[in-house]
Amino acid sequence: MRQGPIDEAIATRGHLPGGLLEVLHAIADRLGWIPPEAVERVAKALNLSRAEVHGVITFYHDFRSEPPGRHVLKLCRAESCQSMGSEQLAAQLERRLGCRFGETSPGGAVSLEPVYCLGNCAASPALLLDGQLRGRVTAGRLDRLVDELTAPAAEERA
Q: What span, in angstroms and rounded, lies between the C-alpha atoms of 144 and 129?
């Protein structure tokens, strides 16, 4: 019998030191989010309360309780990127995508998230798109990127 991602994460990572974080990361890596049914199953398997599991999920910004958009865009909001214009890019993103940071654009194309250092300060401002680092982002490059991500056929090209 084939295990689902939740049971597989519990079976392969639940016994490790820091097992809760290991399990949650494994689930998030496979599914892109932590579904509600995972909370009770993980709590029971690791002998924790549902509140403890929920508390960890909501504390760490890398865990989400809702499915992400087709693309996840993380814009650096740290000082170096701010000094090079990331706050203007942030406003541009919110306007263009029709959502705020921590939300997903209407239609589910892009989940917009803040990040507070990508370690790419020499190429500020920087963003991470679906795990790919991009530096020296300009308003024009950002507009072209948003156009690509929100175009009806974007998911076919991705």
A: 13
Q: Exposed, middle or buried, 45 (CB in 10 Å: 0-12/13-18/19+)?
A: middle
Distances in Å between the Cα of 3 and the Cα atoms of 7, 12, 49 are 6, 11, 23
Domains of the chain: 5-59 (no CATH), 71-157 (3.40.30.10)
Give the span between the Cα atoms of 112 and 73, in whole angstroms.
5
Strands 110-115 and 71-76 turn out to be parallel
Total residues belonging to the chain = 158
Strands of 132-134's sheet in order across: 103-104, 110-115, 71-76, 127-129, 132-134
Mean pLDDT of each 10-residue bin along the chain, 158 residues long: 87 93 96 96 97 96 92 97 98 98 95 96 97 97 97 60
Backbone phi, psi, residue 133, to 5°: -80, 135
pTM (2 d.p.):
0.82
